[in-house]
């Protein structure tokens, strides 16, 4: 048994060395990305990523997603956006959805824009469910879903599994340089890859796809 364990550990170490020492990570990372083109839609769904509890400032990922959604509004794709309460009902953290809505209103001069709120959605699956409820109540058909590049494929699968007509639009990547020039960038990318892998595993185990 021990020789097998040692062989497995050696394989893991060699794999990690390969991924961190070379840009080989690009292959699995590219698979995670879906490059949909934006189309005119009933609403733009900004997937949540929260705000700093101590300062109340939106995380850089949240700002990147929100900025992409604002650009879509300015380009005429929709006048409706959603923001997500990722803290949960009764949470003690800052109200990220309110902070995000304020961020949008400060930057959108077109007062026709409407901001809707998805409450207590703690993961992408629950965001998809809240979106399904809101879209049904409002009669929305086509939706643009804005999220981070490496989250696009999983998000699209989760929304489409609920029979939602979505185009998933990637925001700017802010967690690492997509060229993966250094070990530090590759390590950050590997963390995202692990997170997405866990998300896919959870989705498969729960029958969400």
Automatic annotation (TrEMBL):
Stretches assigned to the DUF218 domain: 42-196
GO cellular component: plasma membrane
GO biological process, one term: Gram-negative-bacterium-type cell wall biogenesis
Name of this protein: YdcF family protein
Organism per entry: Deinococcus terrestris
